[in-house]
Structure formats: structure tokens, C-alpha cells
Amino acid sequence: MKLIETLRAGPPPPKVALLPDALFFTRALSIASGATTADAAAQVELALEAISPFPLAQLYYGWFWTPGTERAFVFASYRRRFTSEQAATWQGAELVLPSFAAVLGAVVEPATTLILASPDGLTAVHWDAGPVPAQVLCRPLAPEATGDDRARVRDELIRSL
Q1: Cβ-based burial of 120 (10 A; exposed 0-12, middle 13-18, buried ≥19)
Q2: For the chain, N or C: smaller number of CB within 10 Å?
Q3: How crowded is residue 86: how many other Cβ atoms within 10 Å of its Cβ?
Q4: Could you give the 3-state DSSP secondary structure of residue 131?
């Protein structure tokens, strides 16, 4: 069987809405050694309740964690930050994520930083060691930003990490 036929034989991929990174706050959180998936989920939710000024029910949130690692990377945004018109454009989406989530799970060398460019800004995703990022920083840019502006912001992001 050809690869494309194998892919077509499975369930369709989920519909995902990728939103601007700057709309989310991010944190790397410690996870207890030997945690199960359920343990990690509980630890993440408790940590979010502690660091967020809003209850979980008022957040869009998610996390990336690999079993066996002692860090999860969390992202969240206050639901009221989005208008009903914006939310209507995600209708039918099974997941709503920041754009940088597209690189979560990437196989990278230790001390790697990826710079992601979008029309509205630059995002730096940094891994110190292991499969879970240590930090994500976003810097918005005006649509009329020049190449020099983008280079300056890119350099600032790298220095900040």
C-alpha cells in the first residue's frame, strides 16, 4: 500500500485554528518525576489556577508534555480577549492553538532557538535540553515593518533568551 493510501485510510486530521502567538501567555512548568499523563494534566491545571488571575473556565489553554520529562510547556489566553466575531471564524475547529504550537514536538538539538515569522510579529521558541521548550517569546510588528525592523526585533528576541 502506498503512503498516501495509508494516510487516507485513517481518520481525518482534526481541524485546527492557529491564532497569533502574542495573544497567549506561556510558561514552562515543572512536572514531578515519574508522572503519568493524568498526573501531568492535574499538575498543569493546578499551576494555571495559581498563576492566572482568571479561573480555568475563562481561559483557552493547553500544554505540551512528553512522558518521562520533568517539564511541561503551557499556553493560555483569556477568553474575553476574543470577540464573538473572531470566535465565529474558528467554528468547527477541534483545537484552538497559538501558531508556535506547530513546532511543538519537533526534534531539535540542545540549545536550539527557532524564529517564526508571521505578518504580525516574530516568535522565538527556545529549547535548552529535551523535547519540551524552555521558553517562547513573541514580539509584535506593524504590518509596514521593514526588513531592518524585523532584523532588529529578531536580534532583541535572541538576546532576551
Answers
A1: middle
A2: N
A3: 12
A4: coil
Cα separation of 157 and 153, whole Å? Answer: 6
Instruction: Kindly state the cell numbers that stand for 94.
Output: 477541534
Report the 10 Å Cβ neighbour count for 73: 26
Q: Model confidence over 70-88: pLDDT tens digits?
A: 999 999 999 899 888 988 9
Which residue spans within 15-134 are E strands per DSSP? Answer: 16-19, 25-30, 59-64, 71-78, 95-98, 112-118, 121-127
Handedness of CA 46, 50, 55, 56 (dihedral sign): negative
3-state percent breakdown (helix, strand, coil) of the chain, nearest 5: 35, 30, 35
